[in-house]
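Anyone else keep sequences and structure tokens together like this?

Example one:
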Amino acid sequence: MTTEAKSTEEKATQAKPASPFTSFSQFYPYYLAEHSDPTCRTLHFVGSWLVLGVIAMAVYTTNWALLWLIPVIGYGFAWVGHFFFEKNKPATFKHPFYSLLGDWVMFKDILVGKVSLKRE
């Protein structure tokens, strides 16, 4: 590898900060802290239920075009929660995969009572 190529590669590596999270178990406490407002959590929960409802409706009616609504509904409810109630940027912008997983883990944790929809 030429010196110029090495220099370009090093700059590219330095320009991208490494994620502070090396696993989902490290990310999830951060995710929950970014969802401390009860209204934000409730909007995520409602949006997740609606996403499941759209999937069920698409399967039941075989109207697969309904599936295009999933990101609109899922992100729409979540982003309203973040921008207007939590007043922060969604974790999706920096950690898209962990954030999506976090949405569904938090949904499950709300269902089983591990996470509350009330102010803690």
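And example two:
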Amino acid sequence: MKFVCTLFLISLIYTIVSSSAIASSLGSENTPLTSDTNKGTLIVNITTVNGDEGNNKSSDFTVNIHANDPIPATFKGNSSGTAVKLSMGMYSVTISSIPNYNSSLSSDCTGGIMKVETKICNIVNTYSYS
């Protein structure tokens, strides 16, 4: 009986120590698993070309990020660029349409991203009166 109790106690101590080690390796209150260090960065630049007749600005367009947990997921366009944090995986970028503007998106506006990677998505909105 003494051997069984000792074996149980050793097993219990091992379980507690293992659980504690796993918990500390997953992150603590100061470094949660969802921290920005576990995300890739997508920089979205919006350029608006108005020609002689257009009058919209980059901020008149709304950008949507389709991905796993994007931060932010939706925002107003910005010619200086907006940094978006993305969890590892596939993503795509879409932009609202405004009459008489044609949007062209660079190749990095869709694809896959790793957690330590930075990609740049350039969108050009060009006014074209038809």
